[in-house]
From TrEMBL:
Keyword Oxidoreductase: no
Entries under InterPro entries matching the protein: AH/BAR_dom_sf (IPR027267), F_BAR_dom (IPR031160), FCH_dom (IPR001060), SLIT-ROBO_RhoGAP (IPR051627)
Organism expressing this protein natively: Champsocephalus esox
Annotated F-BAR domain residues: 12-78
Keywords: Coiled coil
A Pfam family reported for this protein in Swiss-Prot or TrEMBL: FCH
The keyword Coiled coil appears for this protein: yes
Domain of life of the organism encoding this protein: Eukaryota
Entries under PANTHER family matching the protein: SLIT-ROBO RHO GTPASE ACTIVATING PROTEIN
Annotated protein name in UniProt: F-BAR domain-containing protein
Amino acid sequence: MVRTQCVVAKTTDVRLQLVEQQRCLEQQTEMRVQLLQDLQDFFRKKSEIETEYSRNLEKLAERFMAKTRSTKDHQQYK
């Protein structure tokens, strides 16, 4: 009977340790999921900014090229 009580006590201890470990793993997983979501948002916003910058730069280059094509000075150097 003493041996049975010892086995039950050890089983309970192991169960408690496993529950605590599972809780820690769940917290780590939640933190990592949040980090991935934050990174996803960051790269999405970065992509939007870079796309807008690219469009604006292209418009600027087009305006510059149109201006230089129409000037007489540019025509002389062709």
